[in-house]
Amino acid sequence: MKLKLVAFDVDGTLYPNWVMYLRSIPFGIANFRKLLAFARVRKRIRTIKPVHDFYRLQAELFASLMNMTIPQAREQIDRVFYSQWEEVLLDIKPYPHLREVLMHFKSKGCKLAVLSDFPIGNKLRYLGLDSFWDAAYSCEEIGYLKPNPEPFNLLAAHFGVQPHEVLYVGNNYRYDIVGAKRVGFHTAYLHRFPGWCPAADFKFSEYRQLLKWVESEKE
Ligand SMILES: [Mg+2]
How far is the CA of 63 from the centre of ligand 1 (A)? Predict the structure, then answer.
Protein backbone atom coordinates (compact mmCIF):
# COMPACT_ATOMS: atom_id res chain seq x y z
CA MET A 1 0.00 0.00 0.00
CA LYS A 2 1.82 3.09 -1.23
CA LEU A 3 -0.12 6.04 0.10
CA LYS A 4 0.15 9.54 -1.30
CA LEU A 5 -2.78 11.07 0.55
CA VAL A 6 -4.33 10.40 3.94
CA ALA A 7 -7.64 12.14 4.55
CA PHE A 8 -9.64 12.37 7.74
CA ASP A 9 -13.20 13.04 8.70
CA VAL A 10 -13.32 15.69 11.47
CA ASP A 11 -16.11 15.23 14.04
CA GLY A 12 -15.66 12.05 16.04
CA THR A 13 -12.48 11.23 14.12
CA LEU A 14 -10.03 13.95 15.15
CA TYR A 15 -11.59 14.31 18.60
CA PRO A 16 -14.01 12.13 20.61
CA ASN A 17 -17.66 12.70 19.76
CA TRP A 18 -18.80 12.16 23.34
CA VAL A 19 -16.99 15.31 24.45
CA MET A 20 -18.92 17.26 21.86
CA TYR A 21 -22.21 15.64 22.86
CA LEU A 22 -21.59 16.36 26.52
CA ARG A 23 -20.74 19.95 25.83
CA SER A 24 -23.72 20.22 23.47
CA ILE A 25 -26.32 19.38 26.11
CA PRO A 26 -27.19 23.01 26.99
CA PHE A 27 -27.13 23.85 23.30
CA GLY A 28 -29.36 20.87 22.52
CA ILE A 29 -31.90 21.78 25.19
CA ALA A 30 -32.06 25.36 23.96
CA ASN A 31 -32.43 24.31 20.32
CA PHE A 32 -34.20 20.97 20.55
CA ARG A 33 -36.79 21.41 17.78
CA LYS A 34 -34.30 23.03 15.44
CA LEU A 35 -31.81 20.25 16.07
CA LEU A 36 -34.35 17.55 15.19
CA ALA A 37 -35.41 19.42 12.07
CA PHE A 38 -31.82 20.00 11.02
CA ALA A 39 -30.96 16.33 11.50
CA ARG A 40 -33.91 15.40 9.25
CA VAL A 41 -32.81 17.91 6.62
CA ARG A 42 -29.25 16.54 6.61
CA LYS A 43 -30.52 12.98 6.22
CA ARG A 44 -32.84 13.92 3.38
CA ILE A 45 -30.30 16.06 1.52
CA ARG A 46 -27.90 13.11 1.16
CA THR A 47 -30.44 11.45 -1.13
CA ILE A 48 -31.17 14.40 -3.46
CA LYS A 49 -29.49 14.74 -6.86
CA PRO A 50 -28.60 16.90 -8.61
CA VAL A 51 -27.99 19.73 -6.15
CA HIS A 52 -27.48 23.13 -7.76
CA ASP A 53 -27.23 25.24 -4.62
CA PHE A 54 -26.61 23.22 -1.46
CA TYR A 55 -27.21 26.06 1.01
CA ARG A 56 -30.42 27.18 -0.71
CA LEU A 57 -31.78 23.62 -0.77
CA GLN A 58 -30.84 23.06 2.87
CA ALA A 59 -32.62 26.31 3.85
CA GLU A 60 -35.71 25.35 1.81
CA LEU A 61 -36.00 21.96 3.51
CA PHE A 62 -35.43 23.49 6.95
CA ALA A 63 -37.95 26.29 6.27
CA SER A 64 -40.69 23.85 5.31
CA LEU A 65 -40.15 21.74 8.45
CA MET A 66 -39.97 24.75 10.76
CA ASN A 67 -42.71 26.73 9.05
CA MET A 68 -40.60 29.79 8.35
CA THR A 69 -39.35 31.73 5.35
CA ILE A 70 -36.19 30.69 3.49
CA PRO A 71 -34.19 33.78 4.58
CA GLN A 72 -35.21 33.06 8.19
CA ALA A 73 -34.12 29.45 7.81
CA ARG A 74 -30.79 30.51 6.36
CA GLU A 75 -30.16 32.95 9.18
CA GLN A 76 -31.03 30.34 11.85
CA ILE A 77 -28.84 27.67 10.29
CA ASP A 78 -25.92 30.11 10.06
CA ARG A 79 -26.31 31.35 13.60
CA VAL A 80 -27.30 28.20 15.47
CA PHE A 81 -25.62 25.37 13.59
CA TYR A 82 -22.59 27.00 12.07
CA SER A 83 -21.57 29.63 14.63
CA GLN A 84 -22.91 28.62 18.05
CA TRP A 85 -22.24 24.93 17.58
CA GLU A 86 -18.66 25.55 16.61
CA GLU A 87 -18.10 27.41 19.88
CA VAL A 88 -18.89 24.16 21.70
CA LEU A 89 -15.57 22.87 20.39
CA LEU A 90 -13.42 25.68 21.75
CA ASP A 91 -10.24 24.20 23.32
CA ILE A 92 -11.34 20.64 22.71
CA LYS A 93 -8.51 18.08 22.79
CA PRO A 94 -7.74 15.86 19.81
CA TYR A 95 -7.58 12.08 20.26
CA PRO A 96 -4.41 10.85 22.00
CA HIS A 97 -1.57 9.93 19.61
CA LEU A 98 -3.30 11.53 16.63
CA ARG A 99 -0.43 14.00 16.28
CA GLU A 100 2.11 11.16 16.11
CA VAL A 101 0.06 9.58 13.35
CA LEU A 102 -0.08 12.83 11.40
CA MET A 103 3.66 13.39 11.84
CA HIS A 104 4.36 9.84 10.71
CA PHE A 105 2.43 10.34 7.47
CA LYS A 106 4.13 13.69 6.88
CA SER A 107 7.55 12.14 7.37
CA LYS A 108 6.65 9.55 4.72
CA GLY A 109 5.86 12.33 2.26
CA CYS A 110 2.08 11.84 2.36
CA LYS A 111 -0.26 14.75 1.85
CA LEU A 112 -2.82 15.26 4.60
CA ALA A 113 -6.38 16.48 4.20
CA VAL A 114 -9.65 16.74 6.06
CA LEU A 115 -13.03 16.15 4.48
CA SER A 116 -16.04 16.87 6.67
CA ASP A 117 -19.76 17.14 6.01
CA PHE A 118 -19.79 20.28 8.14
CA PRO A 119 -17.92 23.53 7.57
CA ILE A 120 -14.34 23.28 8.80
CA GLY A 121 -14.40 26.86 10.10
CA ASN A 122 -12.23 27.25 13.18
CA LYS A 123 -12.37 23.63 14.30
CA LEU A 124 -8.81 22.69 13.31
CA ARG A 125 -7.48 25.74 15.10
CA TYR A 126 -9.57 24.97 18.21
CA LEU A 127 -8.07 21.47 18.14
CA GLY A 128 -4.55 22.87 17.82
CA LEU A 129 -4.08 20.90 14.60
CA ASP A 130 -4.27 23.64 11.98
CA SER A 131 -0.64 23.37 10.85
CA PHE A 132 -0.88 19.81 9.50
CA TRP A 133 -3.17 20.00 6.48
CA ASP A 134 -2.53 20.40 2.78
CA ALA A 135 -6.25 20.83 2.12
CA ALA A 136 -9.45 21.11 4.14
CA TYR A 137 -12.78 20.53 2.43
CA SER A 138 -16.34 20.74 3.57
CA CYS A 139 -18.64 18.50 1.52
CA GLU A 140 -21.24 21.26 1.66
CA GLU A 141 -19.05 23.44 -0.53
CA ILE A 142 -18.79 20.58 -3.00
CA GLY A 143 -22.60 20.27 -2.98
CA TYR A 144 -22.96 16.66 -1.83
CA LEU A 145 -22.61 15.13 1.60
CA LYS A 146 -20.96 11.75 2.25
CA PRO A 147 -21.44 8.94 1.30
CA ASN A 148 -21.96 10.48 -2.17
CA PRO A 149 -18.88 9.91 -4.35
CA GLU A 150 -18.43 13.57 -5.41
CA PRO A 151 -16.55 14.83 -2.32
CA PHE A 152 -14.20 11.83 -2.30
CA ASN A 153 -13.52 12.08 -6.02
CA LEU A 154 -12.87 15.80 -5.78
CA LEU A 155 -10.35 15.20 -3.03
CA ALA A 156 -8.37 12.72 -5.14
CA ALA A 157 -8.57 15.04 -8.15
CA HIS A 158 -7.33 18.00 -6.09
CA PHE A 159 -4.14 16.12 -5.29
CA GLY A 160 -3.90 14.36 -8.66
CA VAL A 161 -3.75 10.92 -7.02
CA GLN A 162 -5.34 7.58 -7.87
CA PRO A 163 -8.00 6.21 -5.49
CA HIS A 164 -5.76 3.31 -4.41
CA GLU A 165 -3.16 5.86 -3.23
CA VAL A 166 -5.61 7.34 -0.71
CA LEU A 167 -6.44 6.27 2.84
CA TYR A 168 -9.61 7.71 4.36
CA VAL A 169 -10.08 7.65 8.12
CA GLY A 170 -13.53 8.09 9.62
CA ASN A 171 -15.83 7.16 12.51
CA ASN A 172 -19.12 6.75 10.62
CA TYR A 173 -19.39 3.44 8.83
CA ARG A 174 -22.21 4.30 6.44
CA TYR A 175 -21.01 7.74 5.45
CA ASP A 176 -17.21 7.67 5.77
CA ILE A 177 -16.17 4.09 5.22
CA VAL A 178 -18.74 2.84 2.71
CA GLY A 179 -18.53 6.13 0.79
CA ALA A 180 -14.73 6.11 0.59
CA LYS A 181 -14.55 2.40 -0.24
CA ARG A 182 -17.01 2.80 -3.09
CA VAL A 183 -14.65 5.17 -4.92
CA GLY A 184 -11.70 2.83 -4.34
CA PHE A 185 -9.95 4.41 -1.34
CA HIS A 186 -8.38 2.39 1.42
CA THR A 187 -10.37 2.82 4.60
CA ALA A 188 -9.66 2.90 8.33
CA TYR A 189 -12.65 2.81 10.64
CA LEU A 190 -12.32 4.38 14.08
CA HIS A 191 -14.82 2.78 16.43
CA ARG A 192 -14.80 1.27 19.87
CA PHE A 193 -17.16 -1.57 18.87
CA PRO A 194 -16.93 -1.76 15.10
CA GLY A 195 -19.06 -4.89 14.55
CA TRP A 196 -19.43 -6.22 11.01
CA CYS A 197 -17.91 -3.74 8.59
CA PRO A 198 -16.71 -5.34 5.35
CA ALA A 199 -15.91 -1.97 3.72
CA ALA A 200 -13.27 -1.21 6.35
CA ASP A 201 -9.72 -2.31 5.49
CA PHE A 202 -8.70 -1.65 9.05
CA LYS A 203 -10.59 -1.12 12.31
CA PHE A 204 -9.09 0.62 15.29
CA SER A 205 -10.16 2.11 18.58
CA GLU A 206 -7.07 4.19 19.28
CA TYR A 207 -4.56 5.91 17.05
CA ARG A 208 -1.52 3.89 18.10
CA GLN A 209 -3.16 0.88 16.42
CA LEU A 210 -3.49 2.81 13.17
CA LEU A 211 0.16 3.81 13.37
CA LYS A 212 1.19 0.17 13.86
CA TRP A 213 -0.94 -0.91 10.93
CA VAL A 214 0.46 1.58 8.45
CA GLU A 215 4.00 0.88 9.63
CA SER A 216 3.51 -2.85 9.14
CA GLU A 217 2.04 -2.51 5.64
CA LYS A 218 4.47 -3.38 2.88
CA GLU A 219 4.96 -0.60 0.36
MG1 LIG B 1 -17.53 11.88 12.03
Answer: 26
Say which range, 22-36, 136-150, 156-170, has the weakest mean pLDDT.
Answer: 22-36
165 DSSP 8-state letter: G
Centroid of ligand 1 to alpha carbon of 170 (angstroms): 6
Q: Would the pTM count as exceeding 0.90?
A: yes
Query: How many whole angstroms from its chain centre is CA 18?
Result: 15
Distance between Cα 69 and ligand 1 center (Å)? 30
What confidence score (pLDDT) does residue 197 get? Answer: 95
- Determine the pLDDT at residue 58: 98
Enumerate domains of the chain plus CATH numbers. Answer: 5-15+95-216 (3.40.50.1000), 19-87 (no CATH)
CA–centroid distance, 15 to ligand 1, in Å, is 9
Assess contact for 8 and 171: CB atoms under 8 A.
Answer: no
CB distance 151 to 139 below 8 Å: yes
C-alpha 170: how far from its chain's center?
7
Ligand 1 centroid–CA 51 distance in Å is 22
Please give the Cα distance from 177 to 182 (Å, whole number): 8
